[in-house]
């Protein structure tokens, strides 16, 4: 069992004014044969990263005999020393990054007493797994579930699919997980060894990954805990979320780990959900994710499933660069009666929703029933942390049904087959976009339906080649405004017609926007398509008082234009809300619009959508 002296079971705050003792160093190609002498000259040792993450002449290095955290001035002096070596083209340090688990709200570890009764089949928590089969237990809405049992009856249980849990480790000795554990596809990037077992704490803080794993692959009918959504899938444990700080290299190594073996990466963490943070993946992690979708699964693309965030109405998940990435499937959650969970963030990059907790004020405020540390079970897992693994489990069922699905096919299928059901939120009404798709700013295209997803996956033909059209880029000199005086900008586009990157049918839209403002939390940004669909790229965040950094070419993403035709006028409206009494100012500096999609229409349209898709 792992223990780590000096850590308190919580992430320590990342110290300001410090950098890590990890450096990326790129050599001049002609001096690659002198690598060993250069390492010796500067007292450096090589840190391992996945093959292909760095170029042939680029290394992740650590200076021997130095502490893990260096004062910024000390690290900068050392980089200046490296820069004077004629053999080095460039070097930069790894920052210490703050990354938080989602859904961990002070729950303490305890065995679940209800695990001893309430049998349904042979798994003691079956009756509590309302997200798989909702019969109205715990005051839920009967039938409001993931529609999984229908898929099991057809024989699809996730066999042949491997799901990686990017988290704080997995209790792979748990009797409800061990039969489905894949040691050859697992690794501990926090401890740099092949044993990704959670570090012990007295309060069970490192139970997060074990709980997520059980939702996906807990063994069926063995009389232990419950059953996983894809109970014959394999679980890979990638421990990377339990150290005093995160680095770009650890994230990149985790997301690029064994991409030909691992099909789905499930991540229930991200930048701090405090309503103030604007953060996302750095250079190496972006490269790992780009390589994953382009090269993973033998070219079909790694599938990254991400929890959208637990910042509630005070945050916006479009300012989380992991959840809002085009390469990830951002998953939000609903409670067991279809209402909004108090921690749900909303944003335009959410693809779909699953479930995470019981109805507030119900007889039993049920969480998600799953495995827990040291062979125990729990019914207290919650947050969008619980929602993302459910989505990963359902996607595993679809991949078993059709292993040829690409990462984009999976997103298409989720857009096509997710359902509104009884999901509702008073702040965000359901809308229909120009292609006939029903969407919601909180729930995406609806709750995932395993039955429909698998049914359409069996008939699916791969989507046409993906294209990307840069519509335009605009630098702005005099665009200062105050509250009540919004700024409107527009591009008129032919969507790169006649060129090799022509886009006619939309998948993702990116708006890169730079803004300086006296209070970033007052910003509201909307974008309207040529087919008159308006998407909220950013909503005000009342806790964000930033007046210095603003937004610097931040890549806002929307999936809400999916399927629309892209030609015509695109409009962006930037405004300041009246959240504070003091009059605020803002200045738009730059914006750029990029549309991703296909030139040709998708050849396969599910039968229930055929009357909705507009030409």
TrEMBL record:
> What does the UniProt keyword field contain?
Cleavage on pair of basic residues, Disulfide bond, Hydrolase, Protease, Serine protease, Signal
**Where is the segment annotated Disordered?**
99-118
Species per Swiss-Prot/TrEMBL record: Oikopleura dioica
| Residues of the active site | 167 (charge relay system), 208 (charge relay system), 385 (charge relay system)
Q: Where is the composition biased (Basic and acidic residues)?
A: 103-115
Task: Name the job this protein performs.
Answer: Serine endopeptidase which is involved in the processing of hormone and other protein precursors at sites comprised of pairs of basic amino acid residues. Responsible for the release of glucagon from proglucagon in pancreatic A cells.
Domain of life (superkingdom):
Eukaryota
A Pfam family (short name) is: P_proprotein
Question: Which protein family is named in the record?
Answer: Belongs to the peptidase S8 family. Furin subfamily.
Q: Which residues form the P/Homo B domain?
A: 462-601
This chain's protein is named Neuroendocrine convertase 2
Its EC number(s): 3.4.21.94
* Taxonomic lineage of the native organism: Eukaryota, Metazoa, Chordata, Tunicata, Appendicularia
Which EC class is the enzyme in?
A: hydrolase
């Amino acid at each position: 069992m792992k223990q780590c002296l000096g850590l308190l079971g919580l992430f320590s705050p990342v110290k300001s004014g410090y950098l890590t003792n990890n450096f990326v160093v790129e050599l001049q190609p002609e001096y690659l044969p002198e690598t060993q002498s250069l390492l010796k000259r500067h007292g450096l040792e090589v840190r391992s990263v996945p093959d292909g993450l760095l170029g042939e002449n680029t290394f992740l290095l650590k200076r021997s005999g130095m502490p893990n955290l260096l004062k910024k001035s000390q690290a900068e002096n050392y980089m200046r020393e490296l820069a004077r070596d004629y053999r080095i083209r460039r070097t930069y340090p790894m920052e210490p990054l703050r990354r938080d688990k989602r859904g961990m709200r002070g729950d303490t570890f305890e065995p679940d007493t209800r695990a001893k009764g309430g049998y349904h089949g042979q798994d003691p928590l079956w009756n509590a797994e309302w997200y798989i089969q909702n019969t109205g237990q715990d005051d839920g809405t009967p039938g409001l579930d993931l529609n999984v049992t229908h898929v099991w009856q057809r024989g699809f249980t996730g066999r042949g699919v491997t799901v990686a849990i990017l988290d704080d480790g997995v209790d792979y000795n748990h009797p409800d997980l061990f039969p489905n554990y894949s040691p050859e596809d697992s690794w501990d990037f926090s401890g740099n060894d092949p044993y990704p077992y959670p570090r012990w704490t007295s309060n069970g803080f490192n139970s997060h990954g074990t709980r997520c794993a059980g939702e996906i692959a807990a063994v069926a009918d063995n009389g232990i805990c419950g059953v996983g959504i894809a109970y014959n899938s394999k679980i890979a444990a990638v421990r990377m979320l339990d150290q005093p700080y995160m680095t770009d290299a650890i994230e990149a190594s985790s997301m690029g780990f064994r991409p030909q073996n691992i099909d789905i990466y499930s991540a229930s963490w991200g930048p701090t959900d405090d309503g103030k943070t604007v953060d996302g993946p750095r250079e190496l992690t972006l490269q790992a994710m780009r390589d994953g979708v382009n090269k993973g699964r033998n070219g079909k693309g790694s599938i990254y499933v991400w929890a959208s965030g637990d910042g509630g109405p005070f945050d916006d998940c479009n300012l989380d660069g992991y959840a809002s990435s085009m390469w990830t499937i951002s998953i939000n959650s609903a409670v067991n009666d279809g209402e909004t969970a108090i921690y749900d963030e909303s944003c335009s990059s959410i693809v779909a929703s699953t479930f995470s907790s019981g109805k507030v004020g119900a007889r039993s405020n049920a969480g998600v029933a799953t495995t827990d540390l040291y062979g125990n079970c729990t019914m207290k897992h919650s947050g969008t942390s619980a929602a993302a693994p459910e989505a990963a489990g359902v996607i595993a069922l679809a991949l078993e049904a059709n292993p040829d699905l690409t990462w984009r096919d999976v997103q298409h299928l989720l857009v096509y087959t997710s359902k509104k059901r009884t999901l509702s939120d008073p702040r965000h009404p359901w809308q229909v976009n120009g292609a006939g798709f029903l969407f919601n700013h909180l729930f995406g295209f609806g709750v995932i339906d395993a039955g429909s997803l698998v049914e359409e996956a069996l008939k699916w033909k791969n989507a046409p080649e993906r294209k990307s059209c840069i519509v335009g880029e605009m630098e702005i000199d005099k665009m200062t405004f105050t509250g009540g005086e919004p700024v409107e900008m527009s591009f008129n586009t032919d969507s790169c017609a006649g060129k090799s990157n022509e886009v006619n049918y939309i998948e993702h839209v990116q708006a890169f926007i730079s803004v300086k403002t006296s209070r970033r939390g007052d910003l509201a940004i909307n974008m309207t398509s040529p087919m008159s669909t308006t998407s909220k790229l950013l909503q005000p965040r009342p806790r964000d008082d930033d007046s210095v950094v603003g937004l610097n070419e931040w890549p806002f993403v929307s999936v809400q234009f999916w399927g629309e035709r892209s030609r015509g006028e695109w409009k962006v409206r930037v405004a300041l809300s009246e959240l504070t009494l003091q009059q605020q100012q803002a200045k738009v500096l730059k914006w750029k619009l990029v549309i991703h999609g296909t030139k040709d229409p998708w050849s396969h349209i599910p039968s229930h959508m055929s009357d909705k898709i507009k030409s």
